[in-house]
Design a protein that fits this description.
The chain has 375 residues and is of the alpha/beta class. It folds into 2 domains: 200 residues, Rossmann fold; 158 residues, 3-Layer(aba) Sandwich (Rossmann fold), CATH 3.40.50. Helices cover 37% and strands 20% of the residues. It is built from 14 helices and 18 strands. Helix 4 links the parallel strand 9 and strand 10. It is globular and about 60 Å long.
Length: 375
């Protein structure tokens, strides 16, 4: 199958942006499909011009061609109700669509805005159009569309990362039940897997008897790094240590922080495997990759009791709490710290859940969805 993927951005030799898109595309190529990724490149944000075309030979019979039309972004500048950076991004996509190296069987927009960018081209050439909906807030992305109805009618299918995203998409009038398939986010099981905790701790200089809480995500209000730190502080337990992997303006601060900062994606599994539990009191998601990655490393999860988690978390592999309740987060941490049997049981359940959420399985499910809905 020839697949054109439209993504807001894509990793390159300088940046690790949108790695979840790259993992899916690489898996499709491994399974023998030819992929062309359109990912406009901001010369202002990156202070760099990128070559337009890059071809990657991959394992198996498939290939990946990446088209990076350069464009100018101007922060949040808005004229006549239109955000100029989005206008320039869409124009860059249109330029790339005119220079495709393959004849597409389908066009796949990674999120609603990118599917909308490819809509006119797809309709003009009679190409089935699919969208992946994984946004934490869909409504704000579609508010400016004037052709919403005809765009939505043309769509062949919607890949939803969670039941929450499916229900939100239907409620907003973007699609209907028959066009949707819930396929949660997934992990590369060769990267995110259970490793020897003792070896990981030795390498990172963490004491074997420390109780370690891991957080991975942006340091902002939505993800809740500060709420995790406040919960640890509220415990008054100096034996609790923590690893905060991420960056952002709301840096966590509490006793016992062993690491705080950004990591290469390939290094995150080592830090997760050196931990005892994973805590992410996020306020809103599509389907959180960080949660799935933590489960694949065998960590019990403390996260939000909200609909975006319900396709991947349950009472066997997690404790779900109100994400704004600092005391509830604190008590969940202390419960897992003091109950080693519960911790072990949840760790085993997390591993079992993650086995069903691997990127190769997800890639195959999406291909099958394409084939069944590309009419």
């Amino acid at each position: 199958m020839n697949i054109v993927i439209i993504s807001y951005d894509y990793p390159d030799e300088r940046r690790t942006v949108f790695p979840f898109v790259a993992r899916l595309v690489e898996q499709w190529a491994k399974q023998g499909h030819n992929c062309c990724v359109i990912a406009p490149y901001s010369i202002i944000a990156n202070r760099h011009f990128h070559t337009f075309k890059e071809v990657i030979q991959h394992e198996g019979q498939g290939t990946i061609t990446i088209l990076r039309p350069n464009f100018i972004s101007v922060s949040n500048l808005t004229i006549a109700g239109k955000r100029i950076s989005w206008v320039m991004h869409e124009r860059a996509v249109q330029r790339a669509l005119k220079r495709l190296p393959i004849k597409p069987d389908v066009i796949y927009g990674h999120f609603w805005e990118q599917a909308h960018e490819g809509y006119r081209f797809a309709r003009k050439h009679g190409i089935p159009l699919f969208v992946a909906t994984g946004e934490s807030d869909i409504a704000k992305m579609i508010s400016k569309w004037k052709d919403k109805e005809v765009f939505c009618n043309y769509l062949s299918g919607v890949v939803c990362v969670s039941t929450k995203n499916k229900q939100e998409s239907i409620a907003l009038g973007l699609t209907e039940e028959s066009k949707c398939e819930v396929i949660p986010n997934a992990i590369d099981s060769k990267l995110f897997q259970k490793l020897d905790k003792t070896s990981c701790r030795r390498e990172l200089g963490i004491a074997e008897d420390d109780f370690v809480v891991a957080f991975v995500g942006w340091f902002n209000e939505r993800k809740g790094a500060k709420r995790v730190a406040q919960a640890i502080r509220a415990s008054n337990d100096l034996d609790i240590k923590s690893l905060f992997v991420g960056i952002g303006s709301e840096e966590p601060d509490c006793p016992g922080i062993l690491f705080k900062g950004k990591l290469q994606h390939k290094d995150v599994p080592k830090y997760l495997n050196a931990s005892d539990i994973f805590v992410l009191p996020t306020l809103n998601e599509g389907c959180c990759n960080a949660v799935v990655e933590a489960m694949a490393c065998g960590l019990p999860v403390i996260s939000s009791n909200r609909a975006f988690n319900w396709d991947i978390l349950n009472e066997r592999n997690s404790i779900m709490v109100e994400p704004t309740d600092i005391n509830a987060i604190c008590q969940a941490i202390l419960r897992l710290k003091t109950d080693s049997n519960l911790r072990q049981t949840m760790a085993e359940a997390a591993l079992a859940s993650a086995e069903q959420l691997t990127i190769d399985v997800r890639a195959s499910k999406i291909i099958n969805f394409f084939k069944s809905h590309a009419t």
